[in-house]
Backbone:
């Protein structure tokens, strides 16, 4: 999960991913940021994130993102 934090921090340096638990629902990151996050995660971890996985529950926290990455790896 450490590498995921690095990827997210590079993509959105103003966001504290250790603290934020409502990244999408709290509008901490917007749709443009989300596209960049998805692209960076796919590139870094060699996975493809299907459209049905692009739901707030999978992107509201670093823990949720990590669970999704693990599931898709």
Residues:
């Amino acid at each position: 999960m450490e590498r995921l934090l690095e990827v997210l921090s590079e993509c959105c340096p103003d966001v504290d991913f250790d603290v934020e638990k409502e990244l999408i629902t709290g509008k901490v990151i917007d749709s443009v940021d989300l596209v960049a996050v998805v692209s960076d995660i796919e590139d870094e971890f060699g996975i493809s994130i299907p459209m049905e996985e692009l739901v707030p529950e999978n992107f509201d926290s670093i823990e949720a993102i990590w669970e999704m990455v693990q599931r898709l790896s």
